[in-house]
Write a structure and sequence with these properties.
The protein is α+β, with helices and mostly antiparallel strands and 276 residues long. The N and C termini lie far apart (70 Å). Strand 1 and strand 2 form a beta hairpin. The strands form three sheets. Strands 1, 2, 3, 4, 5, 6, 7, 8, 11, 12, 14 and 17 form a twelve-stranded mixed sheet that branches. Strands 9-19-18-15-16 form a five-stranded mixed sheet, with no helix packed on it. Strands 10-13 form a two-stranded antiparallel ribbon. It folds into two domains: 47 residues, FAH (SH3 type barrels), CATH 2.30.30; 193 residues, Alpha-Beta Complex (Fumarylacetoacetate hydrolase, domain 2), CATH 3.90.850.10.
Length: 276
């Protein structure tokens, strides 16, 4: 190969690596924490949290104060007016029963717990399952949004566990108790912005053993389609969450179990199951 060809290849490699680094630098991880009686938002960089002057949707102005990740309690990273979810949105989970449009149901903000929060099983919850999911965080008020414009309304993504009591799903008139009991919506640990949410790996582990592992590129209805469809029916507000569906198979959880859900680029959400 001629020397000039090697030089061109080397230059392209430098540009590619530099572009990859630049793209990585655009990713920011927001956390909401409690520290010494104070609750605030911060930017997570490694094991250090940089305290922010404002809220989640304000310009990320650093105060100059930092705290160690190990010294804080991680809260649910958003404060939504509503928590929605899409069912049967991976063929590995739904088979051929996946719907032609997103099948929406409601969870509740009161069901949310953060990283290391406890999943309390209410009396009578005999068949509770984990469901590891990619969760969309809405960044601005959205009504009748097109699919093409939907990315402009997505602030970022986080990890979630759509805890589901299968017996109540079958027996109750609606899924509210099965999906929205206290502690049935763990989310966190951070909200990541700047990621390509169309192709992120979702992995769920039960007591350390991998149970679910699939990319968001296999969603039947992708994030942009979900946001657009939802906004045509329900006005979305900043901070609202949409669980996008779970892949593969799920299994029952019991008191003492630990569920970990890792979203590529976001981090790992960990929660222990306890009897209420």
């Amino acid at each position: 190969m001629k020397r000039t060809t090697w030089a061109i290849l080397a230059a392209l490699t430098v540009l590619w690596v530099g572009g990859a680094v630049a793209a990585e630098n655009k990713v920011m991880r927001y956390v909401r924490v409690e520290h010494q009686g104070s609750k605030f938002y911060g930017l997570l960089e490694g094991e250090t949290i940089h305290r922010l002057a404002g809220g989640l949707f304000d310009p990320p102005e650093r105060t100059g104060t930092t705290v160690a990740l190990s010294d804080v309690t991680l809260l649910p990273p958003a404060e939504p007016t509503k928590v929605l979810a899409v069912g049967l949105n991976f063929r590995s989970h739904a088979g051929d029963s996946g719907a032609r449009q997103p099948e929406l149901f409601a969870k509740l903000p009161s069901a949310m717990v953060g990283h290391d929060g406890l999943i309390h099983l209410p009396p009578g919850a005999g068949n509770p399952h984990y469901e590891g999911e990619l969760v969309v965080v809405i960044g601005k008020r959205a009504k009748n949004v097109s699919v093409a414009d939907a990315p402009n309304y997505v602030f970022g993504v986080t990890a979630g566990n759509d805890v589901s009591e299968r017996g109540w799903q079958s027996s109750d008139l609606q899924w509210l108790r099965a999906k929205a009991s206290d502690g049935f919506a763990p989310v966190g640990p951070a909200i990541a912005t700047g990621l390509d949410y169309k192709d992120l790996m979702i992995e769920t582990r039960l007591n350390g053993a991998v149970q679910q592992s699939e990319s968001s590129k296999f969603l039947i209805h992708n994030v942009d389609e979900i946001v657009s469809f939802t906004s045509r029916n329900i006005t979305l507000e900043p901070g609202d969450l949409i669980f996008c569906g779970t892949p593969g198979r799920t299994r029952p959880m019991k008191p003492g179990d630990v569920v970990e859900i890792t979203i590529q680029g976001v981090g790992t959400l960990r929660n222990k199951v306890v009897a209420d």
